[in-house]
Amino acid sequence: MKRAMGHAALSASLLGRLSGFDIADLGPHASLLYRELIASASARLPASTIILAAAIVDIVQNEQAGPAGYLDGAAFAYAGSTANLGWLRGRRNYLLHHEGPSDGLMGEADAGRWLAGDAERAVIALLDFLDDLRLTD
Q1: pTM
Q2: DSSP string of 59-74?
């Protein structure tokens, strides 16, 4: 059996930012997955962290018990970086839907480092999106 990758999914400062986000304004589905995201990132599981971050963006945009039920479409149109959110969706899709070789998924020597970097980028994209929605005062 190969050794574990040994790379942290998130830096301590980003994990602190993730843990410090107030999920009170999220719907129940997004809240549940947000708590799972914190656990995944804490357990150094970068692929799961990427997948959950992307799922939370989609859920927040659609769950009527959360921000989608009280924010207008303009709030979502200007939340987060379109490029970063597009990257996040694409990276999640590479992880979930095998369509060919993808960096970090081919057993490369640097795979753990690449996936850890992608997990950081995924969480930053999610947190920037949530921050731009200005859910809390």
Answers
A1: 0.87
A2: HHHH-TTTGGGTS-HH
